[in-house]
Design brief:
By secondary structure, the chain is an alpha/beta fold. It folds into 2 domains: about 120 residues, Rossmann fold (3-Layer(aba) Sandwich); about 110 residues, Beta Barrel (OB fold (Dihydrolipoamide Acetyltransferase, E2P)), CATH 2.40.50. The chain has 7 helices and 17 strands. The strands form 5 sheets. Strands 2-1-3-6-7 form a 5-stranded parallel beta sheet. It has a 5-stranded antiparallel beta sheet with strand order 12-11-10-14-13, covered by helices on one side. The protein has a 3-stranded antiparallel beta sheet with strand order 15-16-17, with no helix packed on it. Strand 11 and strand 12 form a beta hairpin. The longest helix is centred in the middle third of the chain and has 17 residues. The radius of gyration is 21 Å and the shape is elongated. The relative contact order is 0.09.
Length: about 240
């Protein structure tokens, strides 16, 4: 696999290159760049790059500009000292988001995520839905597996991720943004406040005006009502 490093601090770039060689000797770092401009110029001429190790703050601006300038086809692993860009990174379909100082085991895990896609080389099989997402609230970051989410509940502009094991994580996600990340075959937007995992539906009862009341596990005190217009779609979803 061929990779490039985009990092405006030479010492950091050299350290990252050494760590890549130790964590994944089969990856060849073909070049390093300090600017968005040089990176774009290189990628326009080389179609064999499979991984970009990308810092956020570069010599000529914020690296998210790269995605505005060109369609980035390869895996992108962010390596940065700033945690506030994690959600934006995953909206750009980043493979992973690593915080400095980097740890070799985290780097190895990120590279492992990139390898199956690179080896298949079939862009069309990539699902637009996430298997893992980063959730951020205030200064805290959590990486969670989407198949371990029981439901997401939104209240007072905060989305709470309730996990199958009973853990609860607040986040600054909007519920609509969460819905766009999750596979609709296993997650259903029940109403303005809830997205429910198929396996979290414990029981249902008929409610007034042809609506459905849903009880979920783990339990929550909030009442979950599927609206009249969504009830037929909800029933169809359950029968898949």
């Amino acid at each position: 696999m061929k990779a490039i490093i985009v990092e405006d601090e030479q010492l950091a770039a050299n350290r990252l290159k050494r760590m890549i060689n130790e964590a994944a000797p089969d990856i060849k770092v073909v070049s390093t760049f300090e600017t968005i401009e040089d990176t774009v110029s290189f990628l326009n001429s080389r179609k064999d790059i499979e991984i970009i190790f990308l810092d956020v703050h570069l010599a000529d601006g914020n690296s998210f500009e790269l995605f505005n300038i060109m369609d980035v086809k390869c895996n992108v692993i962010f390596t940065t000292a700033y945690d506030q860009y994690a959600i934006e990174a995953f909206r750009k379909n980043a493979t992973d988001y690593l915080l400095k100082p980097l740890k070799k085991e985290h780097l190895a895990e990120a590279i492992a995520k990139a390898k199956p896609v690179s080896n298949n080389l079939l862009e069309e099989i990539k699902t637009p839905y996430k298997k893992r997402i980063i959730i951020k609230f205030m200064s805290k970051l959590h990486s969670i597996k989407t198949d371990e989410i029981a439901y997401v509940f939104s209240k007072n502009k905060i989305s709470y991720f309730y996990m199958i094991d009973g853990q609860r994580y607040p986040s600054d996600y909007k519920l609509q943004d969460v819905e766009n990340l999750l596979d609709p075959s296993i997650f259903f937007r029940a109403n303005r406040q809830f997205i429910i995992h198929l396996d979290a539906v414990e029981s249902m009862t008929k409610h007034q005006a042809s609506r459905i009341k849903v009880v979920v596990k783990p339990a929550i005190s909030e009442t979950i009502i599927v609206s009249t217009d969504k009830t037929p779609v909800f029933k169809e979803w359950l029968n898949r």
